[in-house]
Each structure stands twice: as structure tokens, then as C-alpha cells.
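Question:
Write out your own:
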Amino acid sequence: MLDDFLIRAALAGIGAALAAAPLGCFVVWRRMAYFGDATAHAAILGVALALALSISVFAGALAVALVMGLAVSTLSARDHAVDTLLGVMAHSALAFGLVAASFLTNIRIDLMAYLFGDILAVSRTDLGVIWGGAALVLALVAWRWQAMLTATLNPELARAAGIDPRREQLVLTLALALVVAVAIKVVGALLITALLIIPAASARPFARTPEAMALLAVGVGIAAALAGLGASLNFDTPAGPSIVAAAALGFALSTAITAFRRN
């Protein structure tokens, strides 16, 4: 069954949605969209270094994304202007990654695939990496769910309960790095943040509990992945951007339904 490239692409999209959607809820709650952008853009530098050192692209993207996330967390804790800091680091990391990739003259690299994804070229090995990474992210989020949720909603209450908000921030950083490394093959570095944020934002108006929001976000993410692949097949459009476009249409529908219910 896995010989069919469309089956592999669909499974890859589902795996990426499973990893990104629950984590995207925390990104939305904490208003960390720029943080996700900085981590995702840094992955391009990780890809270039991985190819130069002949190591796994997944390992390279994960390592550099994790370093970026830790650096941003450390600097923001020292009263730097967070929005400015994230903007500088996100675009700098992307620029250094593209410059580093240009020096790889002896290695063939398709930058468009890493910037916007190449889900239709996912191999069995890639599929194993995506689902393995998704399982790690889900296990990490399930393990620290209550602690991260408390630290997100009320840091003072978290401290009173013996929960260190900074530790939970580091756990979230690790999980984000894993999602970036997993999803870069599916939607690319420039669109990963959309896969994190849009399903969670679409699910938010219909969820009465944080757990319900996470489950709804997973459903929206999976639906967007499958709808985007269907659109790509039928209209010959790029698969990664088509997935994000499908998610954006879902968000528009969610917003319209919410407005209708209010009126």
C-alpha cells in the first residue's frame, strides 16, 4: 500500500497535523506566532549544515531549530523586546540558511522543497521519521499537558503549585523544534507556522475546554491536509501551499459561522 505516493503523502500530512495541531493551541494561547516563525526559519540553516556534514536532514533541522528556540527563550527572559528580537532572529536565520545552501556546490539541493514542502516526494523513510516525530511530540504534550496548560493560563498559580513556568517553556520549545523537523518535508519552513496556528485558531470558537480545542484542531489539520492534497491532485497546484490554503478556508468558514451565531 505504501508504494502509492499519494498514500504516503496523505499519511505524511496526517502525521504532521497530529504533531502540529495540539502544540498550535499553546502557540495561539501564548501568542507565540513569531516564535514559531523563528524556529521554522532556522531549520533551513539546519538543512544546509546537515547536507554539508552528510548527516540526517531531520537531525540537522531539529538541532538548529532547538538552538534557535533556546536562544530566543533565554534572550526574551532578559527583558529584550520580544517582537523585535524574534523578527531579527527569524529573518537572519533564514538568510544565513540560504547563504549556507548556496555554498553546497557539490550537493544537489532543491531549496523550494524545503521552503514550501514536497509532500508528494515523501519516502517510506521520511514517513517513518514523520510518524516517529509525531509520536514523540504527542507523548511529550500528553505528559506535560496539565503543567504547560497551568503555566500558560496563570504563571503565578503554576508557581504556587510547584510548577516552574520556565521549565514548561523549555518543554514547549523542544516540542516546537520536533514539529519543525517533522513538518519541513510536508509544508516547508515558510509554511510550518501556518500549520501550527490556523487549525488551532479555527477550532477555538467551538471548543469549551482546552482538551476539546486540541482535538478539534487535530481534526481541522487532518481535513486541511487531505483537502489540500486533493486540490493539488485535481488542479495541479503545489501541495504544501494547497494544504495551508485549505486550512485558511477552514478558518474563514469558522469565522463566518461564529459571526452568524453571534448575530
In short: Residues 124-153 form the longest helix (30 residues). The chain is about 80% helix and 0% strand.
